[in-house]
Write a structure and sequence with these properties.
Helix content: 40-55%
CATH topology: Aspartate Aminotransferase, domain 1
Largest sheet: 4 strands, antiparallel
Number of strands: 6
Number of helices: 3
Structural class: alpha+beta
Radius of gyration: 15 Å
């Protein structure tokens, strides 16, 4: 049991270290004692974005078969994805896929505007629009 805990902690620490080096990933939210992490996903301007987080979530799921959880509607979690700590191979695959996905999402762009409905980009991905303060 102690060996499994140590391995999970090492993979969690790797995710924290490596994700902060990926362009388009913002701050870590919350604690680090669970089997998941909560990170901000940033738009092209470097701001936390629900639209960017949803686009990354959908692209990871639909194009790469990687499941994360969009948490941007939760209080204090604007633009956040929940990432579960996986095996070493899953962690390596996730980090590579996230890096590629963020590049794709930022390259293709996504719309901002009033909340409601969704936006479909050129890849056929659907995500909610940002709510802009009036």
């Amino acid at each position: 049991m102690a060996d499994n805990i140590a391995k999970t902690e090492a993979r969690r620490n790797r995710l924290i270290r490596d994700m902060t080096q990926i362009k388009g990933v913002g701050r870590l939210h919350g604690g680090t004692e669970a089997n998941f992490l909560l990170f901000e996903i940033l738009d092209e301007c470097g701001q936390p974005s629900n639209a960017a987080a949803c686009a990354v979530y959908e692209c990871l799921l639909k194009k790469r078969g990687i499941v994360t959880r969009f948490r941007g509607e939760d209080h204090g979690c604007h633009g956040c994805l929940r990432i579960t700590i996986g095996t070493e191979d899953e962690t390596a695959s996730f980090l590579q896929a996230l890096n590629l996905t963020l590049k794709e999402v930022h390259k293709t762009g996504f719309s901002s505007g009033a909340r409601g409905g969704g936006v479909v980009n050129g890849n056929g991905l659907n995500w909610p629009q940002e709510q802009k303060p009036g």
